[in-house]
Amino acid sequence: MSIDVNNESGTEVDEQAILDIARYALARMRIHPLSELSVIVVDADAMEQLHIQWMDLPGPTDVMSFPMDELRPPGKDDEEPPQGLLGDIVLCPEVATKQGAEAPTRHSMDEELQLLTVHGVLHLLGYDHEEPDEKAEMFGLQTAIVDDWRAEKGLTGPSPAPTVS
After folding, report:
1. If we measure between CA atoms, which residue out of 148, 146, 149, 141 comes closest to residue 125?
2. What is the pLDDT, as a whole number, of residue 164?
3. Hey, which residues does 67 pair with through a beta bridge?
4. With helix as H, strand as E and coil as C, how does the chain read?
């Protein structure tokens, strides 16, 4: 898996954890090991510009996903998943800090960025949360991936509750 993490935010973030959880999520979703992903960490001003440009919504948001080859997890009968360019995930640590502090399970910016990375990966793979059944599926999968990754890493304490809207 080729994953690039580029921190342009000016905020120190745990880039290795972002890389690790992205790799874990993609492997868990059975994405071809030669697929490519880019994660970009930006400040609130850059995220606000992207949010306005692509979503026509004001203010910065927590995470945005820009799919490229529209890869999907393989079905049960697919022996070999297709390889390709997944796309870009853009994260904003300033928003992540605020969301982590306001979450019911209060958690750090880095924990929120890990959750948002998985959220972004799932969006790149075609998951959405516009409808209640889609939201239940996506957030359930997101929680399972984050919980399993944390358990594998031996991280203790409650996992971040989904704060992504």
Report:
1. 141
2. 56
3. 87
4. CEEEEEECCCCCCCHHHHHHHHHHHHHHCCCCCCCEEEEEECCHHHHHHHHHHHHCCCCCCCEEEEECCCCCCCCCCCCCCCCCEEEEEEECHHHHHHHHHHCCCCCCHHHHHHHHHHHHHHHHCCCCCCCHHHHHHHHHHHHHHHHHHHHHHCCCCCCCCCCCC
**Both structure tokens of 123:** 């969006």
Q: In what side-by-side order are the strands of the sheet with 36-41? A: 2-7, 36-41, 85-91, 63-67
pTM: 0.89
Q: Is 36 exposed, middle or buried (0-12, 13-18, 19+ CB in 10 A)?
A: middle
Mean pLDDT over 99-127 rounds to 93
Residue 160 CA to its chain's centroid (Å): 13
Contact by Cβ (8 Å): 35, 54 = no
pLDDT score of 85: 86
Percentage of residues of the chain with pLDDT beyond 70: 85
- The token pair that represents 3 in the structure block: 């994953």
